[in-house]
């Protein structure tokens, strides 16, 4: 093995001083030399900025970018653009990776050269319980034909509401594939991962599913406080436009899959309007948005037959029974 950089691990950092050292050490302590760690300090207001510099001084494989706050999607793209390897791994600053990931990924790449490697994760819930996140794919290598047969039917959202894991974490991705498909938009503050992963997977010529849990996802109570705020109608819209512009919706049933996602995203935005608005005002805003495309067209096409929640969601929206959305907002 030569001394070239094999992996670039990109870690967006925003007010992450509590977990950042653990995250970075989990990469640097992999007993693997041919890796660089790119810390993208996205305008942190705590001590994360100084901590990034301290960590960089302790290991010459770590480099730091300090920038004004523009959001995680742009932070990721900035990190990828200065990376020097052919393969990129994203790790959120409050998470960490397990020993052996880089070595296992290197062996897969040397044998198969896949565009994307997906591996499993262990998730810590808010009650400090742990469960393994596994995926319904056979382990091993997939050709383009295999991807078309086994992955595309659930790439965006299938009739049973299943979908390809959209998170940026838990994957090894070819840098050139990322650069062509990454969403970088300051206005996209939710679901931006899927906006990049879906086009990457669509254009991937090969894929490998590594049936091992190498990623450790940490429940962050600070992030959870954001859940009772009304979502901006434009956030999902930006994401879905990005997806539609980068994949061929005529392939398989992807156009219908995107319509399902649009309806699901609309529902997720609609019920949150009751968090910050009085009932009548929220009702009126939901009705106004429903008269616009793409949701108007998507609702006319979509029905869910496989899950009760999805059936109720479509029923409430099509019949304008927004009181059900109001009730849903109260139990979330």
TrEMBL record:
It comes from the Bacteria. The lineage of its organism: Bacteria, Bacillati, Bacillota, Clostridia, Eubacteriales. Residues 8-143 form the Glycosyltransferase 2-like domain. This is Glycosyl transferase. The keyword Glycosyltransferase applies. It holds the Pfam family Glycos_transf_2. Signal peptide: none annotated. It comes from Eubacterium cellulosolvens (strain ATCC 43171 / JCM 9499 / 6). InterPro entries: Glyco_trans_2-like, Nucleotide-diphossugar_trans. Keywords: Glycosyltransferase, Transferase. PANTHER family: GLYCOSYLTRANSFERASE, GLYCOSYLTRANSFERASE EPSH-RELATED. GO terms for molecular function: glycosyltransferase activity.
């Amino acid at each position: 093995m030569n001394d070239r950089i094999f992996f670039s691990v990109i870690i967006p950092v925003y007010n992450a001083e509590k977990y950042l050292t653990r995250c970075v050490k989990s990469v640097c302590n992999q007993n693997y030399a041919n890796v660089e760690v790119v810390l993208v300090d996205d305008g942190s207001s705590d001590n994360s900025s100084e901590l990034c510099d301290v960590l960089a001084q302790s290991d010459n494989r770590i480099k730091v970018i300090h920038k004004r706050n523009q959001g995680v999607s742009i932070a990721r793209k900035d990190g990828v653009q200065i990376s020097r390897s052919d393969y990129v791994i994203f790790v959120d600053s409050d998470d960490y990776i397990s020993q052996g990931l880089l070595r296992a990924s290197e062996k897969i790449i040397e044998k198969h050269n896949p565009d994307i490697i997906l591996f499993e994760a262990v998730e810590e819930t808010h009650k400090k319980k742990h469960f393994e996140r596994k995926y319904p794919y056979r382990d091993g290598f997939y050709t383009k034909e295999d991807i078309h047969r086994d992955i595309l039917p659930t790439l965006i959202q299938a009739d049973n509401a299943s979908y390809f894991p959209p998170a940026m974490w838990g994957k090894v991705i070819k840098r050139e594939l990322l650069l062509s498909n990454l969403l970088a938009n300051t206005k996209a503050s939710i679901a931006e991962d899927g906006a990049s992963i879906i086009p990457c997977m669509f254009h991937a010529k090969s894929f490998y599913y590594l049936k091992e849990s190498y990623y450790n996802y940490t429940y962050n109570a600070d992030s959870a406080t954001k859940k009772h705020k009304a979502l901006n109608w434009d956030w999902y819209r930006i994401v879905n436009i990005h997806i539609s512009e980068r994949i061929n919706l005529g392939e398989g049933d992807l156009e219908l899959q995107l319509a399902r996602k649009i309806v699901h995203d609309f529902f997720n935005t609609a019920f949150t309007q009751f968090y910050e608005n009085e009932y009548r005002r929220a009702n009126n805003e939901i009705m106004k948005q429903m008269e616009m495309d793409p949701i108007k067209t998507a609702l006319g096409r979509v029905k869910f037959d496989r899950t009760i929640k999805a059936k109720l969601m479509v029923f409430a929206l099509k019949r304008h029974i927004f009181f059900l959305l109001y009730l849903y907002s109260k139990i979330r």
